[in-house]
Amino acid sequence: MFTGLIEACVPVLRVESSDEGRRLWIPSPGLDWSVTRGQSVAVSGACLSVAAAANPGTEREVAVGTPGADLAFDLSAETIERTWFGEISAGRRVNLERAMRLGDRLDGHLVAGHVDGVGQITAIEDTRDGGWRVRFEVEPSLERYLVDKGSITLDGISLTVVSPAGRTFEVAVIPLTLEKTSLGTAVAGQPINVEADMLGKWIERLVAARG
Questions:
Q1: What ranges make up the beta strands (E) of the chain?
Q2: CA dist 46 → 12, 75, 126, 210 (Å)
Q3: Which residues contact 93 (CB under 8 A, 6 or more apart)?
Q4: What does 45-75 look like in DSSP terms, one character per residue?
Q5: Is the dihedral of CA 83, 88, 92, 96 positive or negative?
Q6: I need a labelling partner for 167 at 20 to 30 A (CA). Which of 17, 28, 85, 200 fits?
């Protein structure tokens, strides 16, 4: 379980292909950014498990948890199909958030790390106050979850839906979010992972079950 508050934003180091899928390597966000093998990390909104670690610059594998080591995440066929990771490449910035712990403050909203589909940035407008207004379009199956002032997760970032109209909506992005996340380098036409508010999905499922 995550909150949609990004802890770090780093560039992809390399992507390795194999018969099983792909392995994504990223640099450690810092010496104090500790993880364990198998730990869940939301990588641009997709819940992935830490698979391996390596010394920076040498690609020699070391124990997961070694301070400053590069980190590897395996991408399954399902993950590649559900996300924009099918076109991920070195240099693309990804947002990172480790799973929350019981007792943590929930400053964003409840995020599962299960991507519902891929959307697209359609327009970016400078609001002249240091922030941006960004317009998105989602897949037809996600339109029903666009609720004005409701929560949505975009590339792992907890954001608020503004002015939904059909499959499109806007978000107001403050300077801190631009500084700390991949939205700071985003461009129109860029794909983005979308997770709808899980409370809305549960309510929809329960209401449907009641007929």
A1: 8-11, 14-18, 21-26, 40-43, 46-54, 61-62, 70-75, 93-98, 117-126, 132-137, 151-154, 157-160, 162-165, 168-173, 191-196
A2: 15, 10, 28, 31
A3: 9, 10, 11, 12, 182, 185
A4: TEEEEEEEEE-TTT--EE-TT-TT-EEEEEE
A5: positive
A6: 85
Say whether pTM exceeds 0.85.
yes
pLDDT classification of 211: cutoffs 50, 70, 90: low
CB 152 within 8 A of CB 195: yes
Alpha-carbon distance of 186 to 154, in angstroms, equals 12
Q: Looking at residue 109, what is its pLDDT?
A: 86
Question: Would you mind telling me the total number of residues written for the chain in this entry?
Answer: 211
Domains within the chain, CATH numbers bracketed? 8-98 (2.40.30.20), 117-209 (2.40.30.20)
151 three-class SS: strand
Say how many Å lie between the first and final Cα of the chain, rounded: 30
Per-residue model confidence (pLDDT) at position 171: 96
DSSP state of 163: E
CA nearest to 181, candidates 127, 132, 109:
132
